[in-house]
Design goal:
Length: about 100
């Protein structure tokens, strides 16, 4: 997995990172396998994934803290950024297209 970040504007510009720790934190928070997020993630899934991808910036942030930053007005943009993050986190296979995002 490449060390890639995607910026998202929340309370301030923040950098999302998807690594094994983020995937594991998502799974612990939701009880779901990371790859089972699906095409219709719940509000809990979105909050948990955003929290897990931001933990590297501030370990003290809780899912509840992250939930305060997500509104109906910015949820679409947040989901776009999470999908983008998933895509840039994948290795570039030679001669193949990227795998489908579990959030797409």
């Amino acid at each position: 997995m490449k060390d890639e970040y995607v910026e998202v504007e929340l309370d301030k510009p923040r950098r999302l990172r998807l690594d094994l720790n983020a995937m594991s934190d998502f799974e612990k928070a939701t009880g779901k396998n990371f790859s089972a997020i699906g095409k219709e993630p719940s509000a809990t899934d979105i909050r948990a994934l955003l929290w897990a991808c931001l933990k590297h910036e501030d370990e003290r942030m809780t899912p509840h803290d992250i939930g305060k930053l997500i509104t109906p007005g910015n949820m679409g943009e947040i989901i776009k950024r999470l999908v983008e993050l998933y895509k840039v986190s994948l290795p570039e296979p030679e001669g193949e297209a990227h795998s489908t995002s579990p959030l797409a």
